[in-house]
Every structure is written in C-alpha cells, then in structure tokens.
Amino acid sequence: MNKVIKKNLGGWLIMLPSIVLFIFFVWLPLASNVSLSLFETVGYTKVKFIGLDNYKAVLNDPVFVKAFMNTLKYTFWSILIGFAFPIFLALLLSEIIHLKGLFRTLIYFPNIVPGLAVVIMWKYLFNPEPHGTLNAILEVFHISPQIWLNSQNLVIPLIVLTMTWKGAGATTLIYLATIQGIDNTYYEASRIEGATLWQRIRHITLPHLIPTIRMLFILQIITVFQVFYEPLVMTSGGPNNSSISLLQLIYKYAYMREDPNGISKAAAIGVIVAIMLFILTFVYLKLTKEKE
Amino acid sequence: MKKYFSLLVILLVLVMMAGCKNNDKIKITIGMWPEPFMTDDVEMFNEWKRLFEEDYPQYEIEGKPYTYSVDTFFPMANNGTTPTVFQTWFTEPQKLIKNGFVKDITQPLKDLGWYDKMDPEMREALTHEEKVYGVPRDGYGLGLFINLSIFEEVGLVDDWNNDGVLDIVDQDGNPRYPETFAELKQTASYITQTEKTLYDKNVAGLVILSANNNGGWQFSNIAWNFGAELQKQNQDGTWVSNLNSPEAIEALTWIKEMKWEEETLPASASLTYGDWYNKVATGQAAMAFAGNDAISMPITNYNMNKDHVAFVPMPEGPNGEQYSLFGGTPYMFASQATDEQIKGALLFLEYMGRSPEMSEVSKQSMRVGMETAVAKGMPILPTIKPWINEDYLTYANLLEQQYVNVEMSNFQDFYDRFHDMRKAEEPYYTQDMYEILDACIQQVLTRETANPSALLASANAQFQTQYMSQINE
C-alpha cells in the first residue's frame, strides 16, 4: 500500500483536496443519514437505537405508497415527454444552416431562468380560473376552461411538461455537441452514396449518439426520482396527494409533521430512495453491458 | 527585514487578541428585529435597545432579523445558531418542544410574575408536560373577511350614512352579512350568479383554503360549527380520532355543495394562506375565512381600501353551535440560551411593549408601536390580548380607542362575540390531522362524485392508526 502511494505521490497529492472534500461533504453525511435512520431521535440527536422501526413506520404510511407510485409516474412521464424531445431538438438544430446560434440560445434560454421562477410562472399559466392565462387562450378558440393542475390524472404530466420546458435546452446542447463531434467524412460519404436525411440520421447520427443517450437516460431517471420543489410550489403535493413525491414526503416528515421521530423517518425514506436508485442504475448498467 | 516581519506578526497577533477580547456583556440576539429596509421599525428597535442597555448595562442586544420557516429553523437549531428569542406561530410550539429546539421558561416567567398574567388558553398552547416554552405576542380568531365593494356591486350593502364607508350593518344595527352556514351558502351563490349575470364577471362567493394544512385548519372550525368534535376523550381517559362523525360529514358535504351545486368556490383546489387575500383584494372573491390578525394583509399588500372591508363572526352551524378557532403568534427561546440570556430576553420584551408589565417604558413602547403602524398606513384594529392583568388590558384598550382608524361598526360584532366563541385547536397531532383533512377537502373540490362519508372514514382510520394510537400507548 505504502509502495503504491509512494510511487504515485504526486497524483495522490493532487487528488487529496477532492478526497477530503468528498469525505466531508458526501460520504460522512451519507453515513450519518444511514445511522440517523436507525435511531429514535429528538431533533437531530440520536436517543435510542431502534433498528428498522423507522423503515417499518414509513412503509406503513399510506402517503409513502402514494408518493412512491407518484415518483414512478414522474419517471415514466419524464421519459415519455422529456426524453426524446431534446434528441429531436438536437437533430433539428444540427440540420439548421442559418441563425443556428440564435436558435441554440433560444432553446437554452429557459435553463438560465431560476427553477422557482419557472414553476411559479407555469403555476400562473395553469391557473384553473376562467381568466387563467391558458384558459383565456382556450376561450378564444371557444374551448371551455380546463382545471389543469387540479386534475388528479393530469397533474403529474403537466409538472413534467414544466420540467421539460426548463431542462430540455441543456440536454439538447449535450446531444448537439456529440453530433458535432461526429466525423464529417461519414456524412460526406453518405451524401455521395445518395443517402436521404432520414437514412443519415438512422445510420450515422443515432448510432453515434447511443452512448450519450444511454448516459442521459439513467441520469434523467436519477434526477426525476428526486423531483421536489416543482410539486411543492405548484400543487403542494395535491390534489389529494396525487402529485406528492418521495422527496416532498421527506420534507414533510422532517419539517412539517409533529411526529417526534420525524427527522429519522425522513432519513429512512432518504435511504430507501438511494437504495432504489442504486438498484435501478445497477440493473440498467448490467442490461446495457450485456447488450454491448 | 526579519525584524520588521517579526514586528508585523506581533502586531497582527495583538490585533487579533483585541478582536477576541470579550466585553463581558451577556449577548442577546433578537430574531424579531426588523429587516434593514424597514427603516421606521429599525429606528424604533434601536431606541428600545438603547433604553434597555442603559437600564441593564450587563446586557448587549444584537438585532438578527429572522423570519421563521421550518426548513431554515431546524438546521439553525441543530448547530446552535438560533436567535435567543424569535417569533413563530402557534402551529409550531409542540413540534419545536418535542424536538428539543426551545427552552423551558416556566421558572423565569414565575419569577417575573408573568405566568399568571398570561391568557390561560394561550399558555396551554405553549405548554408541554406542565412546562411553558414561550410568550404570546398576540392572538387571533377565525372569522369571515368581506370585500364590501363586491357586496355593494350586487346590492347587499350601501353607505347609508354617507360617511364614505360601506356599512355591513343597517341603520338599526342589524347585520347585513351571513350569520349562519345556510345564509353563507345562499349569499355566496347569489354573489357569483349576480356578478356573472350583471357584469359577466367570474367572482367566487367564498374562499376556503385547501393546501399546506390550511384546509384542515379551516375545516376544523367549519366542522365544530356543524357540531363535530374532531378528537374526543373516551370515558377511560384515552383520546381517539373522531373525524367521521355525522356532523363532520355534514360539514364536508356543505363544502362539496358549495363547489358543485352552487359553483361559488374558486376553481383551484390547492389554495394556500396567501391566496385568500390575493383573491379577495383583487375582486376575484367576495368572502374568505381568515384570522383577524391578517385583516391588514389585503390592505397593506394589495392597497385594498380599508373602508371597503368588514370582518364578521364565523357563521353559526345548523344546530346553533358557533365557534371561532383561536391561535396566535408566540415568542420562543433558543434551547442553547443560558438562564441569564432568557431573563434578559424576557426583560427586553417589556421594552418592546410586549409584556404584561405596565412600566413607563413599556407604555411608551406600546404607544410608539401604534404610531409607527399608523405612519406606515396600516389599519389599526383591536387585537386579541395575550395578557389578562387589569392594568395591561386597561392601557391596551385605551391605546386602541385612541388609534383605531377603521369604521368599527364593520368589525364590532366579531370583537364583541369573540370571547364567547373562541375555541383552541384540537389537542393532539394537530398539524398532522390538518394534513390528512387537506386531502379530503381536495377530493371533494376536485371530484364531483367524491363521497364525504367514505373520505372521512378513511381519514379517520389513518389518523387513528398513524397518530392518535401513539398517545394512548
């Protein structure tokens, strides 16, 4: 061990600040959270070891089941609405010849708007009153007002739409950078062979995008699994908990409820979410590796 | 060079030591200190600080403006950076006490003679296992806030004495506001229909909040007035959940009818606290359930004309029951504060005019507080008093008579009847009960086919299993 360190002393010294910061800001809080979840707590102080009691309590909470199902719904809808869209936008941008910079900026623009401002703006747009922005537009077309976020079936897709509006630009740029990194000779050869646009996309662009798509797919699942402030601000988790997410439930346990073990129960849900994400990532990586 | 360097080091060390030198004063941080942009208030607090430090030179007051919120408070409490005294609201004490974030101040209160002067019901809300953890700033009661401009538009009120103020009572002193829930339904529905027919405007008759535990909070009061008791004690002394009594079901059905039959509630089913005054002040709604401590919100935040506002008692239920949910704003004290700091913080409350002591300095502060509020254009109304000693009540009432700047006939009924109507919140896991009731209200507001009886039965089972069963263990 000493030999290894001595041999690469320079490298270890360069890594040292990152390792220290990682231990301090990531691994210690993680370990502390796991430990907290196994105790009865008063505030953040551990009082008594109670094993898995906090886990049993949260798993028996009907709101947990609802939040878990909702989180899966968020993930499903985000893949359906938000996953292919940036790929499509990137392909479109890569084919544009004029004003490419302008379109790139416009597409990225929602990403620079602070997240809270975005959700507050969309909350106003989705105002279910007849004078709400979207309802007023619908009225022009003689369509009756919609209840938008008040619909228990529509609420999650609409929140995902908001998230996509904000986040798609950044993902598009990542895809676009990958597309622009593809060797131009492939395209030149395909043109000489008389390939159509669709054939170029199908046989050159998409195969080159696959590693990025794979990476962003799992990143998207991890990010959407942690959806928090969007439902908190737009619906407070309602109506009837139909948009509450697991992270929002953590917030409720930690800060809103009178439950004296609220903090450690919140920690327990945190651990459950982490385990779920670990399993999902592991299975996904395993499956895609086998395919390769 | 070396000599100069050594001198520089010594000088730096001396400067640092001087910086670290303790001035031996007991430091008290005041969380209710106004933000720097509120210049009038900062000036007032600085004067109180000056007077206090003159009289108690052993103390040093430090202003640390802090607006309580659960997500910032918990980490602050955990690392011991909470202000010595801070302001919160009556939903919080039990949670803060159970988490060990606030200090028991029973003994200092008794030493100062304040314990027995505190309103007993407010003291109860700040008490856990016979220990008191806070001092009430003031109280509130739920009532019905009315936008008189809308009432006038549909012909329900006028300015009969031509004093520029719309009148909620007629020449004979008879109320022109809904006094029962049946009348409230009728009035709200009439307003919505008339506004649509006459002016083609969409105006909600009534705002009932429905999210962030506000729905459960307001539903408690509605249900009580329908005769419900949401938590009850059995003969063997155990407490149980009672959310699905016939009276509570009737109350939830009333809300459902307001939504689907009368179509007089706002379209949104996730209305939080700020929404009621937004809707009422901007003419989107005619009435809202609200606390009397928030009457100024639509006036100061939306420039609503204070002469077009009335605040009246909660309506009476079908069986004659009529309550006003009662809560308030307390000051609480950091758990890490020393006994000396607690004593100093309590004494400083006297200099803010927030104690039962009727010293000259306290009276002067109460007066300055009123004058500052008047200068800011705030409506001055009676408050629900936190102290019950005669000298305090006499002086506070005298000040209010001098400074009240609204037409009291539009508010008088609420204040006259509040004392007999007031009822404290349900005793156990109140916020958790509100969270569960929120979901029931949202269901009836979003589904025309929702069954109030089934919803409350399920809510009752959940609340009993998850929470109430714990208190009887």
User: What's the total number of strands of chain B?
Assistant: 13
Give the proportion of residues in helices of chain B. Answer: 40-55%
Classify the oligomer: heterodimer
Specify the biggest β-sheet of chain B: 7 strands, mixed
Helix content of chain A: over 70%
Give the tally of structural domains of chain B: 2
Q: Write down the Rg of chain B.
A: 25 Å
The helix tally of chain B amounts to: 18
CATH superfamily of the largest domain in chain A: MetI-like
Major sheet of chain A: 2 strands, antiparallel
Give a written overview of the molecule.
With 292 residues, chain A is mainly alpha-helical. Helices cover 74% and strands 3% of the residues of chain A. Chain A has two domains: 36 residues, no CATH class; 241 residues, Orthogonal Bundle (MetI-like fold), CATH 1.10.3720.10. In chain A, a hairpin with a 2-residue loop joins strand 1 and strand 2. The longest helix of chain A has 30 residues. The mean pLDDT of chain A is 92. Chain B is of the alpha/beta class and 473 residues long. Chain B folds into two domains: 192 residues, D-Maltodextrin-Binding Protein, domain 2 (3-Layer(aba) Sandwich), CATH 3.40.190; 242 residues, 3-Layer(aba) Sandwich (D-Maltodextrin-Binding Protein, domain 2). Helix content of chain B is 47%, strand content 14%. In chain B, the strands form four sheets. In chain B, strands 3, 6, 7, 10, 11, 12 and 13 form a seven-stranded mixed beta sheet that branches. Chain B has a two-stranded parallel ribbon with strand order 1-2. A two-stranded antiparallel ribbon of chain B has the order 4-5. In chain B, a hairpin with a 2-residue loop joins strand 4 and strand 5. In chain B, helix 11 crosses helix 12, helix 14 packs parallel to helix 15 and helix 17 packs antiparallel against helix 18. The radius of gyration of chain B is 25 Å and the shape is globular. The N and C termini of chain B lie far apart (76 Å).
